[in-house]
Design a protein that fits this description.
The protein is mostly beta strands. It is built from one helix and 37 strands. Helix content is about 0%, strand content about 45%. The longest helix has 5 residues.
C-alpha cells in the first residue's frame, strides 16, 4: 500500500469498508472518536470510551496531506497531481472535482496547502512557482484570485480565523529560508508577521477560535528532534511556552470549542493524541491521552463538529538481495529481505564499491521525515553483521557510497533545517556538510569522481538554470 489517511471524530463509530482492493497503492481517510467534552482526570485514570477508526476514503492514485476538511466535514481538499490543480473530494458521493483549472502548463506551478473558510464558501491555497502565492477560489471553482504575493517570500495558508476575516499563514524568506508565522487580512491582503522562528519549521500551527492566540511547536531546550509547544498572543506578539516536557510534543490543532488543544506526544512511549485543557492562552489542566497510536501521522485539521482529520503515510518500501547470472540476467535464487526488522521501512539499498558492505535507509521515527528519524544501516556481506548509524539529519535521502567505501553521500536537513548534501562517515555516522542549497535550488544529481574521490553535484534552480 502507498499511503493511508485517517480521521479522529467525537462520535464513536464502527469500521467502514470502502469496497476497494486494499492491496493496490492507495490512500484512505477514516474517523475515530475523541471524547472532547469528557471531564478532566488524572493520568492514571484515563477515559475508557472506545476509540474506533472509520475509514472514509480509499484513493488509489496517490494523495498528499496538504489539504483540510470543510466545516461540515463532508469535503476535503487535496492536490490532483495529474493536473497539479487544487481539487476537492466529496465523502458522501465519492466524487472528486477540480477547484482550479490552471494546470502546470499555463501557470508553471502547482497547488500546495489549502484550507476552507469558516462558511465553507471559499478555499485559501498556496500556489508554488518562483514564490509561493496565497490564493483564493470559491467552492464552485469560480473567481480564482491572488490574495498575497511577494517575490521574496513563500506564503502558505494554515487556518482561517473563525470570523473569516484573516488567514493564519506560514512564511518563509526565500533568500535565507528563515521561517515566520503570520496573518493575512482577507479584505486588504496585508501580511502581519507574528513571530520569526529562524530556520526551524513547525510541524503545525493553529489559531484559537477567538483569534487571540496562535500555537506552534519548535525544538525546546533539549534540541531536535524533541519539540515543545509555544503560544503567541496576537495582540501583544508575546511568545511563551505552553507545553514543556522531555517528550516530543507537536501541535495538531486548536479544538473548535476553544477550550482544548490537541497535541501529538510520545510521552507514553509511542506517539499518541493528547487533549490539553487551555484557558486564556495557558494550560488549564493535565493533558489526557485520547488516542494511543498515531504512527507517522500528518494533521489535516478540525471540522466544526469536532472531527479531526489526519493522514498516515503507509509507504512500505523494502529491499531484497538476490543472486543472478550476469551473462543471462536470470535469477539464481529467490530474493530475500535484507532485514527482518522494521518490516516495510527499509529501502534505498546500495553496495559499497569494494563489495564488502550493503547500506540502506531504515525509517524508524513516529513522524515522517522528522529530524533523526532515519537510520543508515550498514551490513557486512561476509558476516551479516550490521552497524546502525543515526546521522544528525532530517528527511534523509540517497545514500550513495564514496569510491573508497569509507563514507556515504546523503541529502537532507541539519539541526538548523538547512537543506543540502552531506558526507556521512560509514563507521561513526558523523555528518559533514558538503553543500547547502541556495534559495530556489534543488539537487538533481550527485556523483563521485572515482579518480580522486571528489564529488560532482548538479543543482537545478527555479529559473531553470543548472550549476
Amino acid at each position: 500500500m502507498r499511503e493511508i489517511a485517517l480521521t479522529l471524530a467525537l462520535s464513536a463509530v464502527g469500521l467502514s469498508g470502502c469496497g476497494q482492493d486494499e492491496s493496490r497503492s492507495a490512500e484512505v481517510l477514516a474517523t475515530a472518536g475523541i471524547p472532547g467534552a469528557a471531564a478532566s482526570t488524572v493520568l492514571v485514570e484515563q477515559d475508557s470510551s472506545p476509540m474506533v477508526v472509520r475509514r472514509l476514503w480509499f484513493y488509489p492514485d496517490g494523495l498528499d496531506f496538504w489539504g483540510g476538511p470543510s466545516p461540515d466535514g463532508r469535503y476535503v481538499t487535496f492536490v490532483d497531481w495529474k493536473t497539479n490543480d487544487l481539487a476537492v473530494h466529496d465523502f458522501v458521493t465519492g466524487e472528486n472535482r477540480l477547484l482550479t483549472t490552471i494546470g502546470s502548463l499555463a501557470d508553471s506551478g502547482f497547488a500546495v496547502t489549502s484550507t476552507f473558510s469558516p462558511d465553507g464558501k471559499t478555499v485559501a491555497y498556496g500556489w508554488e512557482k518562483a514564490n509561493d502565492e496565497l490564493r483564493l477560489v470559491e467552492f464552485d471553482g469560480s473567481n480564482p484570485r491572488v490574495l498575497y504575493s511577494n517575490e521574496k517570500l513563500n506564503v502558505n495558508p494554515e487556518e482561517w480565523t473563525a470570523d473569516g476575516t484573516k488567514i493564519l499563514v506560514g512564511v518563509q524568506e526565500i533568500a535565507d529560508r528563515v521561517t515566520q508565522i503570520g496573518i493575512v487580512t482577507v479584505a486588504s491582503g496585508s501580511l502581519q508577521v507574528l513571530a520569526t522562528l529562524g530556520k526551524i519549521t513547525p510541524f503545525e500551527t493553529s489559531i484559537s477560535p477567538d483569534g487571540r492566540y496562535v500555537i506552534y511547536d519548535a525544538p525546546g531546550e533539549e534540541g531536535p528532534p524533541e519539540h515543545d509547544i509555544f503560544v503567541i498572543e496576537v495582540s501583544t506578539l508575546e511568545v511563551r511556552t505552553l507545553v514543556e516536557h522531555p517528550a516530543d510534543d507537536r501541535v495538531l490543532g486548536w479544538s473548535p470549542d476553544g477550550e482544548h488543544v490537541l497535541i501529538a506526544s510520545d510521552r507514553s512511549g509511542t506517539l499518541g493524541a493528547w487533549l490539553l485543557p487551555v484557558a486564556d492562552g495557558k494550560t488549564a489542566g493535565q493533558p489526557r491521552l485520547v488516542k494511543h497510536e498515531l504512527w507517522r501521522m500528518r494533521p489535516l485539521g478540525f471540522a466544526r463538529n469536532g472531527s479531526f482529520l489526519y493522514g498516515v503515510p503507509m509507504n512500505m518500501p523494502d529491499a531484497y538481495v538476490a543472486t543472478f547470472d550476469v551473462e543471462t540476467g536470470n535469477l539464481i535464487d529467490h530474493p530475500t529481505l535484507i532485514s527482518n526488522t522494521y518490516f516495510g521501512r527499509n529501502g534505498g539499498a546500495e553496495w559499497s564499491p569494494d563489495g564488502r558492505y550493503l547500506a540502506y535507509i531504515s525509517m524508524r521515527g513516529a513522524l515522517p521525515s522528522a529530524f533523526g528519524s532515519e537510520f543508515i544501516v550498514v551490513r557486512s556481506a561476509e558476516t551479516g553483521e550490521v552497524r546502525e548509524l543515526q546521522p544528525s539529519l532530517g528527511g534523509m535521502g540517497l545514500p550513495h557510497w564514496s569510491p573508497d567505501s569509507r563514507s556515504l553521500l546523503a541529502r537532507g536537513a541539519d539541526e538548523q533545517n538547512r537543506q543540502g548534501v552531506f558526507r556521512v562517515d560509514a563507521q561513526t555516522g558523523e555528518v559533514e556538510p558538503l553543500i547547502y542549497y541556495e534559495s530556489g535550488e534543488y539537487l538533481i544529481m550527485a556523483e563521485w569522481l572515482e579518480s580522486d574521490n571528489r564529488l560532482l553535484l548538479s543543482v537545478l534552480s527555479e529559473d531553470g538554470s543548472r550549476m
